[in-house]
Please model this.
Amino acid sequence: MIEGAFWVLAGFVFHVYFGYPALLWLIQIVRRLRPAVVGEVQPSVTLLISAHNEEASIGEKLRNSLQIDYPPEQLEILVVSDASSDRTDEIVAGFPSDRVLLLRMPDRGGKTAGLNRAVRDARGEVLVFSDANALYFPESIRRLVRNFADERVGAVVGESTYVEANGEAERNEGLYWRYEVAIKRLESSVGSVVGGDGAIYAIRRGLYRDMRPDALSDFVNPLQIVDQGYRVVYEPEARSYERAGGDFGKEFRRKVRIVNRAWRATWSMPHMLNPLRTGFFAFELISHKLLRWLVPAFLVALFLLNVALQPEGGVYVALLALQAAFYVLALAGWALRHRERLPKALSIPFFFCLVNVACALGILDAWRGKTYTTWTTARAG
Model:
């Protein structure tokens, strides 16, 4: 029984990181969906920029937004200030363009509460969601909205990229993000992307549904759109760029918050996990999110079961040695984490363990009833 449990758990971990992407790739070859119709549609657009105390970056973001290659009369720029206490509101209100609007929330209620309010004021047929530190390439909005020529498409997720990494956390975050981008491409080719990207994604305005203030908007909103029978597709040519979190501590805290909110959001919509309700998307959600969040528990159980199976010798001795070596390397990476550059033999195990510990703490916080409604960005300006 112990042996069987060991291999089942090992199978789950393998599926999360390798089996699921490989299966998507095979499905893509065998049964590729008819691609989304791409056309030169030009609906009216509201660019919603979430901000809290972003005086260091909001001016650059607004200048960048006004340089977007889209008909000016069709593009509204609405900054949602979550009760900023610095000069953010002053900079936005004094910006020399009547296309830039400010919506100040009187009390700090978090990003999602601000978006719920802002959508009621937005005039665009399409809503594009962005952060104050995410800068767009000029063609990004055109690339996003062209997918709405296909009536099956309800949301479009763009691609976040990072400028040259300066710190070890940024380099590892970039590596992790490239892996996520590969999965998004595959998911989009066979069904719908699981989740959005708060830096750059667009939806049909009529599909927006108010969310709870503690909901992770760029995760829950796309789920709501799939639930309404529409596809969420990935558009790699709609790109934004920003800096990663800067250090392991900031990235760790950010991931704890994200997992906490996404875990609770998933269980607030349990029908999305039901294949009888959402079809293949349920399998995507379980594989890409639910099982990945549970990997920390799988890893602990695998190690303990491997210790129990070690007297059997053979493959179990080798696997235990490999696990132990991996965690020793991760600990060495943690001990040397303040160095500007770590060898990949240390940084990759450390970042992998960091992400999984953050998952475990996020779920534990959710189980204890802790919520995260407001936020302070972990990104560098």
Summary: The domain at 45-246 is CATH 3.90.550.10 (Spore Coat Polysaccharide Biosynthesis Protein SpsA; Chain A). The chain has twelve helices and eight strands. The mean pLDDT is 90.
